[in-house]
């Protein structure tokens, strides 16, 4: 068992941290969310090619490498679409048939193609198996009809990977498809919006959208296992993003409590606050442990990897929320302003908590298999 | 980063399992299963220690030259994990985990030669004289006074929460040898023979009706200065060293995992109108909260071992695992009570004695749940209360 970063991972972490520090030093923007030039720099740094195989022109990085980068991105107040494009969309595409990989992956790695995975639907509790968006099979075409909500990066995505159903009932794993759709295809309406944490997204409506049946990832009507695999990686990814932000929330809060004086002393000298910060610290370390457990178990194909992934996502909603809420409380009124970075991190963990299923969903899932 | 276990560790685990299959008798396993405290029944625990000692495995964490095993950090963890899985009664820690490491770190050669072999063999049974009625979390305010008298000290005062003092023939304790200056600077670490005239032991009956704790009184007890560990007035250094062992010398996750497995089996025997409690979504939700926390703690402990293996001092992290481990212990014991409901109220301590002739009125598991719940309330108090541990994290880790 080895929990240390290898040399390459350490270099990746260091260079990402330096890059992001320089970025903030050269700008007063609180949160980088729309800059196309930044995304191209990501491509130049090789970050967009990280998880793709060398055969596909990528760097052949492992899961742990991606997590190292994402933790830094999470620290960095960069609401960039790395998870929707590279981890989720890219995770699906790199498991697609060769024709789709050749068609899309080079552009993705070059920073010229953005993706979004259309998963959640109106008035349906989170569960990818709960999909109702209809995929009607007509000859060698699929016809999509229905709506998707909160499609992260859905406004800017060039391609949408749409989870749809051709058979079975909501809740069934059978009958699911992952369809690759050009975002500008006839019949698609997008309503762009911001997300609470500075990301961009869209509600997307499909009205008789026709797609070639070959534009699918995974087995037609039986795409669940592949989708499930990629969603597990997505959960790890948001865990790493969250961990980066949570680390800053604790650091900033401890630092603030050492300088902020009330009653003639630093507020960090009060035992009641010390114990609350000790709780934040333990929640952070437990989150770090679960990210490590989930990443390494998934990479190793362990039988109980899924337990660890559910536990990680649940921990983001329990421990992560605790850290973020306590950070605001201990900052007092300043914590409620838009002036401090902690506000951004609070919103980041709030968004991540609800993305890809909240803590309750994942605790129930864990309880059912534990 | 990876989870690969070296082949040598996998074969070591097999070796331990084979040994346990051969040497851990049904009677000892019963004692382990019926144990509702961190302190097992003395008779069975000592019997098990003698078996391990014959194999040379009684104190794996001691240096080899003092009778340890020379195992790696990971091998020691595997050994401890297999003991828990096999439901072996836990060894009594005061000698092996506390006094022994102290003597190895601070004792004279004569003290090491005299006491360490007797700790390993179980000939000596140690108790720990730290807390006093007026000195709990504020341990440094202890008042038991050792008056210098030539080559001896004369002790007066009292110690409390002295686990198993009524079984012990020896005590290691902290006494005051100076009343001026900072409280920490006037403390001395002493070894006592419990048969010395002037020592009285009064057992204290606990919530679980077991006399596990004691109060010990010293009335002009004469102790040779040769029984001092370290220098006079330097006992606090020894005490702090020992407390790190007391808090961080063990992994909590393996034992907690065994408890969760047992709890799942119990829940699957509780029928609801439809299905069992094990299938109930609210019960599963509560289970999942514990499972998730135990998994996290397991990896937190693995990270600490990884740091130890790399020669780093994990420092205040032992405070963190003490808090997390004990609070989870309490949460799991609470879930166990809730799982059994009114069945957990059955109180039949005689049936909990290993080898007892009293038959349990109902399943054996129902007898242990409540005493374990009551006993677990202590774990956030002993070994430095969890409030003290949070203070240590704030100070040592967060720099507050």
**Estimated helix fraction of chain A:** 40-55%
| Backbone shape of chain A | globular
State the strand order across the main sheet of chain A.
1-4-5-8
Total count of helical runs of at least 4 residues of chain B: 12
The helix-and-strand class of chain B reads alpha+beta
Strand portion of chain B, in percent? 5-15%
**How many strand elements of chain A?**
10
Query: Mean pLDDT of chain B, rounded to whole units?
Result: 93
List keywords for this structure.
heterodimer; A: 370 residues; alpha+beta; four-stranded mixed sheet; four-stranded antiparallel sheet; 10 helices; globular; B: 400 residues; 12 helices
Task: Note down, in words, how this protein is organized.
The complex is a heterodimer of chains A (370) and B (400). With 370 residues, chain A is of the alpha+beta class. Helices cover 49% and strands 16% of the residues of chain A. In chain A, strand 2 and strand 3 form a beta hairpin. In chain A, helix 4 packs antiparallel against helix 5, helix 6 (224-259) packs antiparallel against helix 9 and helix 8 (305-331) packs antiparallel against helix 9 (341-354). The longest helix of chain A has 36 residues, at 224-259. Chain A is globular, with a radius of gyration of 21 Å. The mean pLDDT of chain A is 96. With 400 residues, chain B is α+β, with helices and mostly antiparallel strands. In chain B, 47% of the residues lie in helices and 13% in strands. Chain B is built from twelve helices and eight strands. In chain B, strands 1-4-5-8 form a four-stranded mixed β-sheet. In chain B, strands 2-3-7-6 form a four-stranded antiparallel β-sheet, with no helix packed on it. In chain B, strand 6 and strand 7 (213-224) form a beta hairpin. The mean pLDDT of chain B is 93. Chains A and B meet through helix 6, helix 7, helix 8 and helix 10 of A and helix 9, helix 10 and helix 12 of B.
């Amino acid at each position: 068992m080895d929990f240390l970063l290898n040399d390459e991972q350490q270099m990746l972490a260091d260079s990402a941290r330096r890059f992001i520090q320089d970025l903030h030093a050269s700008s007063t923007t609180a949160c980088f969310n729309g800059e196309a030039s930044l995304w191209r720099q990501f491509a130049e740094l090789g970050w967009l090619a990280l998880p793709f195989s060398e055969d596909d022109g990528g760097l052949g990085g492992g899961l742990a490498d991606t997590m190292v980068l994402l933790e830094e991105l999470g620290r960095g107040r960069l609401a960039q679409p790395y998870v929707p494009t590279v981890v989720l969309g890219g995770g699906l595409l790199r498991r697609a048939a060769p024709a789709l990989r050749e068609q899309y992956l080079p552009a993705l790695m070059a920073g010229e193609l953005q993706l979004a995975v259309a998963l959640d639907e109106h008035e349906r509790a989170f569960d990818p198996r709960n999909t109702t968006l209809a995929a009607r099979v007509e000859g060698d075409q699929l016809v999509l009809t229905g709506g998707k909500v909160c499609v992260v990066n859905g406004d800017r995505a060039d391609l949408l990977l749409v989870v749809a159903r051709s058979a079975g009932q909501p809740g069934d794993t059978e009958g699911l498809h992952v369809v690759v759709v050009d975002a500008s295809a006839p019949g698609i309406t997008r309503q762009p919006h911001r997300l609470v944490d500075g990301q961009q997204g869209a509600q997307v409506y499909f009205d008789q959208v026709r797609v070639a049946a070959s534009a699918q990832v995974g087995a037609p009507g039986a795409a669940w296992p592949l989708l499930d695999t990629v969603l597990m990686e997505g959960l790890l990814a948001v865990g790493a993003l969250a961990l980066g932000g949570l680390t800053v929330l604790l650091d900033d809060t401890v630092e603030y409590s050492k300088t902020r004086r009330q009653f003639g002393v630093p507020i960090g000298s009060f035992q009641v606050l010390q114990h609350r910060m000790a709780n934040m610290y333990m929640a952070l370390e437990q989150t770090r442990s679960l990210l490590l457990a989930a990443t390494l178990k998934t990479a190793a194909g362990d039988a109980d990897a899924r337990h660890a992934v559910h536990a990680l996502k649940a921990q983001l909603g329990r421990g992560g929320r605790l850290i973020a809420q306590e950070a605001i409380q201990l900052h007092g009124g300043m914590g409620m302003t838009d002036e401090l970075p902690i506000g951004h991190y609070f919103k980041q963990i709030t968004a991540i908590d609800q993305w890809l299923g909240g803590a309750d969903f994942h605790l129930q899932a864990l309880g059912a298999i534990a | 980063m990876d989870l690969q276990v070296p082949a040598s560790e996998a074969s070591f685990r097999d070796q331990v399992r084979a040994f346990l299959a051969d040497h851990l008798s049904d009677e000892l396993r019963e004692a382990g299963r019926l144990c509702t405290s961190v302190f097992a029944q003395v008779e069975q625990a000592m019997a098990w220690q003698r078996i391990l000692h014959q194999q040379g495995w009684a104190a794996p964490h001691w240096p080899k030259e003092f009778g340890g095993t020379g195992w790696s950090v990971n091998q020691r963890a595997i050994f401890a994990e297999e003991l828990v899985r096999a439901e072996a009664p836990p060894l009594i820690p005061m000698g092996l985990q506390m006094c022994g490491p102290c003597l190895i770190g601070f004792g004279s050669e004569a003290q090491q030669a005299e006491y360490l072999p007797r700790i390993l063999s179980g000939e000596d049974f140690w108790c720990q004289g730290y807390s006093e009625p007026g000195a709990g979390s504020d341990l440094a305010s202890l008042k038991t006074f050792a008056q210098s008298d030539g080559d001896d000290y004369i002790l007066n005062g009292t110690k409390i929460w002295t686990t198993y003092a009524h079984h012990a023939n020896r005590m290691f304790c902290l006494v005051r040898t100076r009343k001026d200056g900072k409280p920490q600077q006037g403390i001395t670490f002493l070894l006592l023979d419990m048969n010395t005239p002037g020592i009285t032991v009064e057992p204290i009956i606990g919530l679980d009706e077991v006399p596990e704790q004691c109060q010990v009184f010293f009335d002009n007890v004469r102790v040779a200065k040769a029984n001092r560990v370290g220098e006079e007035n330097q006992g606090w250094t020894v005490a702090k060293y020992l407390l790190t062992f007391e808090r961080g010398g063990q992994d909590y996750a393996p034992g907690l995992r065994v408890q969760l497995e047992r709890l799942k089996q119990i829940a699957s025997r509780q029928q609801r109108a439809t299905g069992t409690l094990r299938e109930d979504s609210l019960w599963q939700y509560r289970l999942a909260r514990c499972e998730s926390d135990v998994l996290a703690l397991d990896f937190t402990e693995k990270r600490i071992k990884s740091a130890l293996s790399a020669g780093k001092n994990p420092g205040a992290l032992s405070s963190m695992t003490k808090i997390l481990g004990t609070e989870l212990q309490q949460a799991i014991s609470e879930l166990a009570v809730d799982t059994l409901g009114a069945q957990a109220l059955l109180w039949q301590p005689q049936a909990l004695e290993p080898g007892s002739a009293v038959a349990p009125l109902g399943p054996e598991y129902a007898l242990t749940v409540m005493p374990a719940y009551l006993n677990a309330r202590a774990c956030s108090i002993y070994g430095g209360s969890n409030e003290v541990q949070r203070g240590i994290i704030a100070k040592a880790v967060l720099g507050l």
